[in-house]
């Protein structure tokens, strides 16, 4: 029995699959089986898999009709024989010690799940970008190092725990005991899978090294296309809510969950075409558990997160769409301004299209600053004006 079963779902990734497979077969921990699930590829991906199988006997190829990422991962789990399971997407790649460090971590602390930090690679820029704290595990303070911990230890930042399937190593016996499966036929599948297992273990550990290279903005990626598949976000959020509702920390975190997941739904609603918005609204109104008055006190939500609440309700009623977009534009514009204002202590950096310039604080000709929820502007040291800008509320409710 191999130490680790690496499950690689493959669908029309001829441009990227070689880099992904090379990074796997060259791992410093070589006692692995590599289960490549060909999910009905129509390009040369299947031929490339066969070429690699001829060179490396650890590669196992499973052919199936196209059923989506969840279906492919589930098919891989059904045949996996390793003590541990890793998921690596075929358009991503990993550092050579990815599996070894996760294996050492999960065995040292007898964990069921081991999580590592992530690099983000922007395909359009052809370069790595500064990853979000969500991917770098910076929400976990030093008290999480060198030990196993429980989900209850993360309740203060639960919605910032990375749910992605691929930057983790899982104990196979744990996945089997929890009957863990990805939701067939749905996209955004990582959230329901992670929530279904995270609240069933007391043993999670982390590796702070960035060892997984996650490719974003790839042409052909489902999450870049939008369309009717984005309706899946409603079902996915329902699944996550059900898992969370069954945990003892639910009442402590449920409003933050609403805030973050309602924002996710709003974001997907924006990206679908106008012709689909009415159907999306009907599905939301009929099926979304975020609208269940037996679960949430909406007066509290409106008080805590008024912007998110109003935008979410406007989708439900399919009313106020123009005002919805106008509020969205204003909020994002103002938040961007505040990002600029706080870039450095004495210098503001601005970008307009391809033009870049900077503004020195307390300069002779102009000045701008933020204080007590107002923005103050001075031009030519004589013309002065200010306007209300509730950044404190904006920061709390930004989209």
Topology:
Blueprint: E1 4-10, H1 17-25, E2 32-39, H2 45-55, E3 59-64, H3 69-79, E4 84-87, E5 93-94, H4 98-108, E6 113-122, E7 127-129, H5 133-136, E8 168-171, H6 172-177, H7 190-198, E9 204-216, H8 222-225, H9 232-245, H10 250-271, H11 274-287, H12 298-304, H13 306-317, H14 321-341, E10 347-352, E11 355-360, E12 366-371, E13 374-379, E14 383-388, H15 391-397
Parallel strand pairs: 1-2, 1-4, 2-3, 6-9
Antiparallel strand pairs: 4-8, 5-9, 6-7, 6-8, 10-11, 12-13, 13-14
Helix pairs in contact: 7-9, 9-10, 10-13, 12-13
Task: Kindly list the characteristics that best describe this protein.
399 residues; 3 domains; nine-stranded mixed sheet; three-stranded antiparallel sheet; 22% strand; disordered C terminus
Helical content (DSSP H or I, runs of 4+): 40-55%
Largest sheet, in brief, is: 9 strands, mixed
What is the overall silhouette?
globular
CATH architecture of the largest domain: Alpha-Beta Complex
In short:
The protein is of the alpha/beta class and 399 residues long. It has 15 helices and 14 strands. It has helices spanning 17-25, 45-55, 69-79, 98-108, 133-136, 172-177, 190-198, 222-225, 232-245, 250-271, 274-287, 298-304, 306-317, 321-341, 391-397; strands at residues 4-10, 32-39, 59-64, 84-87, 93-94, 113-122, 127-129, 168-171, 204-216, 347-352, 355-360, 366-371, 374-379, 383-388.
């Amino acid at each position: 029995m191999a130490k680790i079963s690496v499950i690689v779902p493959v669908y029309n990734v001829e441009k990227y699959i070689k880099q992904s497979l090379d990074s796997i077969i060259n791992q410093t921990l070589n006692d692995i089986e590599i289960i490549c699930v060909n999910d009905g590829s129509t390009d040369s991906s299947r031929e490339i898999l066969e070429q690699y199988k001829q060179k490396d006997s650890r590669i196992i190829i499973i052919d199936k009709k196209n059923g989506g990422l969840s279906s492919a991962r589930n098919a891989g789990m059904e045949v996996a024989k390793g003590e541990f399971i890793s998921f690596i997407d075929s358009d991503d790649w990993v550092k050579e010690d990815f599996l070894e460090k996760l294996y050492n971590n999960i065995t040292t602390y007898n964990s069921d799940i081991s999580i590592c930090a992530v690099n983000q690679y922007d395909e359009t820029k052809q370069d790595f970008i500064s990853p979000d704290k969500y991917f770098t595990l910076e929400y976990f303070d030093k008290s999480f190092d060198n030990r196993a911990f429980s989900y209850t230890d993360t309740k203060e930042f639960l919605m910032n725990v990375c749910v992605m399937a691929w930057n983790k190593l899982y104990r196979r016996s744990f996945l089997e005991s929890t009957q863990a499966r990805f939701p067939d036929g749905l996209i955004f599948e990582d959230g329901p899978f992670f929530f279904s297992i995270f609240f069933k273990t007391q043993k999670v550990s982390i590796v702070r090294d960035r060892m997984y290279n996650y490719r974003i903005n790839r042409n052909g990626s489902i999450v870049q296309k939008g369309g009717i598949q984005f309706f899946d976000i409603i079902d996915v959020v329902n699944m996550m809510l059900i898992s969370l509702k069954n945990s003892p920390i639910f009442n402590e975190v449920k409003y933050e969950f609403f805030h973050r997941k309602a924002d996710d739904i709003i974001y997907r609603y924006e990206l679908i075409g106008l012709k689909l918005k009415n159907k999306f609204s009907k599905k939301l109104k009929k099926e979304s558990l975020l609208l269940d008055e037996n679960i949430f006190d909406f007066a509290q939500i409106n008080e805590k997160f008024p912007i998110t609440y109003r935008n979410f309700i406007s989708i439900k009623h399919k009313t106020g769409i123009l005002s919805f977009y106008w509020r969205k534009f204003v909020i994002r514009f103002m938040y961007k301004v505040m990002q600029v204002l706080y870039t450095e202590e004495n210098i503001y950096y601005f970008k307009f299209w391809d033009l870049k310039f900077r503004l020195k604080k307390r300069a002779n000709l102009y000045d701008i600053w933020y204080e007590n929820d107002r923005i103050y502007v001075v031009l030519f040291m004589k013309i002065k004006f200010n306007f209300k800008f509730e950044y404190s509320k904006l920061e709390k409710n930004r989209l």
